[in-house]
Amino acid sequence: IPAEFDDNAIVIIRECAFKAGLLNDRYSQNLRFITEPEAAAIHCMKSLKEHNLSVGAKFMVVDCGGGTVDLTIRQLLEGEKLSEITERSGDYCGGSFVDQEFLKFLERKVGSSAISFVRENHYCQLQYMIQEFCRKVKMKFTGVQSEFENIELELDELCPVLEQYCKGEYRDNMEEVDWTINLKFDDVKKMFDPVIERITRLIDSQLRSCDNDCSTLLLVGGFSESKYLQLKIKEKFSKKVQLISIPPQPVTAIIKGAVQYGLREEIVSTRVLKWTYGTDIARKWQQNDPIDKRRDDGLIIAFERLAKRGTQIAVDEKVHRAFLACDKTQRKMGLDLYVTPQDDAKFCDENGVKTIGKWSIELPDSLNDNDRSILYTMVFGNVEIQVTALNSGTKELFKTSFDLDM
Ligand SMILES: Nc1ncnc2c1ncn2[C@@H]1O[C@H](COP(=O)(O)OP(=O)(O)OP(=O)(O)O)[C@@H](O)[C@H]1O
Ligand SMILES: [Mg+2]
Asked: Is Nucleotide-binding included in the keywords of this UniProt record (predicted)?
């Protein structure tokens, strides 16, 4: 799944797979999820081994797709395992943005309203023209002047309806050239350059985030096949990183990595938390707390951090915390789980704090303090967070689970 998909998306895909009859059981472990950057990294391990990358070496996977470009830096661990060592970054600057630049170029020839009309009323023809542009121009462009052959695009064949929407001076000019557009080297280069510029900036800032301690760049995704993109990335980064490598068929790297993952799930051994996790605790109101949050009993409900974003967490790693009920009359302890994109939060109703799930456990009617002391454990699994709460006095064990959005 794309890295930005949330838990809801996972639930929907699982439901679809179940309804399509691919699963006997809705919650079957035979369907597992992995994010695209994780899958890409797994696939790239094979080429890393071929390049004799040593244990501890860091490498960056740049997935250049149609819409998005995703970057992650990882480290090769003992036993062919991988860890994610920086948070992922990404932006909308994939290969389709070159197509957008091509359309802008066309707008300057036929007028932007003509292109808008075609987009609204004859989307198929527009798509066909873009597809032909990709096939004849984008995929062949190497960025080397001597290898470039001038290209003629016959608009009356590629997009016949264009003629009827092209008006005024644009029309006169187009008629003069018989609806043929000539693409020169510089025209094509200008379509690529703004997109590539954004990609190299992303790589640059990701490299800086690890103090340039990254020995390899791996390019995957369809747009990575572009010879010009490869050339520009090599030009800019070959002094900073030792190896820039494009695995064979970079467009299938993700699907292959996902299959490898299914066969050997433990490969991705650590991930970096993208949220800070916390629960709500009742504590004594203090002088610097907001007065409106003070309850009649003199307590205040605060956000208690359990795990901080940016922390490396291995699959199945445990986080422990001890909680004590506030007073002897308390019969329930609320242990709702919250996330925030910030490093910490003070209160659960703050901006950015989201509820992941509600949960509470029973406390016994007992005067013994031990019976109100809870050992709370969170286990960060592959797709779920399993939570247990053990009452230290009564030894009663409570369990629940929450979806994990890595
Ligand atoms: N040889 C090539 N040269 C240049 N661009 C190419 C080449 N082959 C494919 N592309 C471009 O790569 C893009 C598709 O890449 P890919 O299949 O990785 O994208 P995606 O995974 O569908 O998109 P996203 O990751 O954004 O969701 C398209 O823009 C396509 O035109
Ligand atoms: Mg993709």
From this structure: yes
Q: What is the per-residue DSSP string for 360-378?
A: EEE--S-S-GGGGEEEEEE
Residue 226 CA to ligand 1 centre (angstroms):
9
Q: Which ligand is nearest to the CA of 191?
A: 1
Query: The CATH number of 276-403 is which of 3.30.1460.10, 2.60.34.10, 3.40.50.11260, 3.40.50.1390?
Result: 2.60.34.10
Q: For residue 22, how far is its CA from the centre of ligand 2 (angstroms)? A: 24
**What is the full DSSP assignment across 124-147?**
HHHHHHHHHHHHHTGGG--S-GGG
Pocket (CB within 6 angstroms of ligand 1): 65-68, 94-96, 134, 138-139, 221-223, 225-226, 251
Yes or no: say if 81 and 265 are a contact pair by the CB < 8 Å rule: no
Tell me the C-alpha distance between 147 and 192, whole Å: 16
Q: What is the pLDDT of residue 178?
A: 96
Of residues 276 and 74, more confidently modeled:
276
Q: What is the pLDDT of residues 170-185, one digit of tens each?
A: 999 999 999 999 999 9
